[in-house]
Amino acid sequence: MKTMTSTLALAGLAVSAGGAFAQGQTLTINSFGGAYEEAHRECVITPFEEATGATVQIVTAYSADAFAQLRAQASAPQFDVIHFSGGQEIVGAEEGLLSPIDPAALENAGNLYDFARTNLEGGEGPAYSIAAIGLVYNEETAPETPTAWADLMDGTYADHIVLTDISNGYGMLGFLMLNQVQGGSLDDIQPGLDAVSQLLENGAFVVSTSPEIQQEFAQNDAWIAPYASDYAYTLSSAGLPARFVQGEEGTPASFITANLVAGRDNQELATQFIDRTISAEAQACFAEALRYSPTNSTVELADDVAADVVLGAEAVEGLIRFDPIKIEENRSDWVDQWNRTIAR
């Protein structure tokens, strides 16, 4: 991994300049637990604390739960910086829950791909990592390598398919892609539900969390699961023969963002934390630790890491992002329909 000297120097100066007033201050953020939270500490939190003297307090909360807390606490929010992976920043900005960010206040903003900084002034925080959603498969036991989302419907895989509940963000994106391939849209998810019914009849099964996927691959002869590139790396790091492939019909993606919460007093310090998050150093660290795709165009990765991520402006811009507002508007109804489908 190459050092991005000039960019990191600028980021370091920005944080160091705030060190004096940050001493003794506390920022409250959410993180996503498990391996992600470990990487979050290594790549962003600990270096930020060491550089500024501030303390970062972590509340473990996934995107949907964190957003629900943000809404409930609108008059007195607990978070200074809030992280989302399901597009909740778009809704939060519209509802006035997030503060605008002046791009000039972020030393690293100019290095982000355009899509990663589209509406900073409107309150949507920058995207700092991307998880591609495709097919995680067992390269030793799967009878053939899947190449397309449509392969999920191939009886060859039958009772060796693991689906993830759509209360899980990655599970939602995988389902919406399956729905699209089956002829559905965000206005009609019935084709996807019909496909899920067929898969369950053929012996597929549903899990709710990432660790359950690992258990199925390790203990129950799972061959294929629609899920994220970073988790394929988690499985392979655990010694499992798991690999990731993008479906030829397209690759949906989860855009992970860092957002400035409205109504908090220490927004300058919080903005510095966001700037650290979008730095080339932090993004390279996330890519190495978890195989997330960077959004900072100056990031350079070792060949083995680069091979596992979606890298470069053209490749990243070709990813599919389902309308987060539409998802948020329909989430409760879709989960209800999903639950009825899998309960049959």
Sequence-ordered SSE layout with sheet pairings:
Layout: H1 5-17, H2 19-22, E1 26-31, H3 34-52, E2 55-60, H4 63-72, E3 81-84, H5 88-94, E4 127-138, E5 162-164, H6 169-181, H7 190-201, E6 205-207, H8 210-219, E7 224-228, H9 229-237, E8 242-245, E9 253-260, H10 267-277, H11 280-290, E10 293-294, H12 303-306, H13 313-317, H14 324-343
Parallel strand pairs: 1-2, 5-6
Antiparallel strand pairs: 3-9, 4-7, 4-8, 4-9, 4-10
Helix pairs in contact: 1-10, 3-11, 6-7, 7-14
Can you describe what's shown?
- This protein is an alpha+beta fold.
- It folds into two domains: 5-130 and 253-317, Periplasmic binding protein-like II (D-Maltodextrin-Binding Protein, domain 2); 132-252, D-Maltodextrin-Binding Protein, domain 2.
- The chain is built from 14 helices and ten strands.
- The strands form three sheets. Strands 3, 4, 7, 8, 9 and 10 form a six-stranded antiparallel beta sheet that branches. The chain has a two-stranded parallel ribbon with strand order 1-2. It has a two-stranded parallel ribbon with strand order 5-6.
- Strand 1, helix 3 and strand 2 form a beta-alpha-beta unit.
- The chain is globular, with a radius of gyration of 20 Å.
- Mean pLDDT is 91; it is low at 1-20.
